[in-house]
From TrEMBL:
InterPro entries assigned to the protein according to its UniProt record, in alphabetical order: ACMSD, Amidohydro-rel, Metal_Hydrolase
GO cellular component assignments: cytosol
Official protein name in the record: 2-amino-3-carboxymuconate-6-semialdehyde decarboxylase
Source organism per UniProt: Heyndrickxia oleronia
Pathway linked to the protein: Secondary metabolite metabolism; quinolate metabolism
Molecular function (Gene Ontology), one example: hydrolase activity
Enzyme nomenclature, EC number: 4.1.1.45
GO biological process: secondary metabolic process
High-level lineage: Bacteria, Bacillati, Bacillota, Bacilli, Bacillales
Length: 336
């Protein structure tokens, strides 16, 4: 069984919030043909997409061709809209959450849904998380790596993490609004250098800021194999050791990192083997970043190519770990 934990989706008929609420930063979808569109931001093409990004039928056709049993659907990070007025961002979240929930309802054996919340307003975020999990039946929440420049250990987010732990809501951290983006306009470095660095900062903040110590049962998974975080973890430990006056935790960072999950999207068996050795095979979930250009094709290829893994370990990473992370009873057979 193959569960692709990292995929993105957007409603084909998402409203034009530029017209409704004004402001150039709202993402809009402009059709270029019946099977393609541009995601526009501030009058410029942010990303060219095909109907793969909104059509569940197209996705299922691709899944069948590539051997994927289930996709976990999450919003595209550009739609987080943390910068907007809370009421408008809440509406944007609700539209996407309703769409994802309806898609799962249509094809319950092929899709699992993650929601999004307006984290610039914690009270609204908790309310929408409650609706996502307890009314819509979504299985987790995707959040950005920072909220308007605030790292995830900012005290303003404590209540959100508290409720996520209380309600056993898994969180999927995806990089967005990357650090140093003013230095990355060329070569698409925002995607290849900025995002991994941004993810490392998010993970380190949750640890060094004491969030993971305060909420030890919090389930958190990081996109893109955790970015550069796994490889700088020894340096974080050394910093904790030599600067005791800065410590906010009772244990070094590597102690808390053992609770993290990571998707497998690092393309290289050497890197995947490092993740497994460092954190355990049970903390890695298969993810492809479907349907974008940097995605892995076919999903799970890096797992298949990692010859040091046992068949049991491969089966866990390819599907069982994702279902366990999302608190879903493992099914041995999927009815298509």
């Amino acid at each position: 069984m193959r569960v692709d934990f990292h995929t993105h989706i957007i409603p084909e008929d998402i409203p034009n919030f530029v017209e409704k609420f004004s402001g150039e930063r709202w993402p809009t979808l402009e059709k270029t043909c019946s099977c393609g569109a541009n995601i526009m931001v501030a009058g410029k093409v942010f990303r060219e997409v095909t109907d793969q990004v909104w059509s569940p039928e197209k996705r299922i056709k691709d899944m069948d061709a590539e051997g994927v049993d289930i996709q976990v659907l999450s919003p595209i990070p550009v739609t987080f809209s943390y910068w907007a007025e809370p009421e408008a961002a809440e509406e944007m979240s609700q539209i996407q959450n309703d769409f994802i929930a309806e898609t799962v309802k249509q094809y319950p054996n092929r899709f699992i849904g993650l929601g999004t919340v307006p984290l610039q307003d914690i009270e609204a975020s908790i309310k929408e998380m409650d609706r996502c999990i307890h009314k819509l039946g979504l299985k987790g929440i995707e959040i950005g790596s920072n909220i308007n420049g605030k790292n995830l250990d900012d005290p303003s987010f404590t209540a959100f993490f508290e409720m996520a732990e209380k309600w056993e809501v898994p969180l999927f951290v995806h990089p967005w609004e990357t650090l140093g983006k003013e230095r990355m306009p060329r070569h698409n470095f925002m995607y290849t250098v900025g995002m991994p660095s941004e993810t490392a900062l998010a993970a380190a903040s949750l640890i060094n800021g004491g969030v993971m110590e305060k909420f030890p049962r919090l389930k958190v998974c990081f996109a893109h194999g955790g970015g550069s975080f796994p490889y700088i973890l020894p340096r974080l430990d050394q910093g904790w050791k030599v600067w005791p006056h800065l410590r906010l935790t009772s244990q070094p960072p590597s102690h808390y990192a053992k609770n993290f999950y990571f998707d497998s999207l690092n393309y290289d068996p050497l890197n995947l083997k490092y993740l497994v050795d460092r954190f355990g095979y049970d903390k890695i979930v298969m993810g492809s970043d479907y349907p974008f250009l940097l995605r892995e094709i076919p999903p799970g290829k890096v797992i298949d190519d990692t010859v040091q893994l046992t068949e049991e370990q491969k089966q866990a990473i390819l599907g069982k770990n994702a279902l366990a992370f999302l608190n879903i009873e493992i099914k041995e057979e999927i009815k298509r």
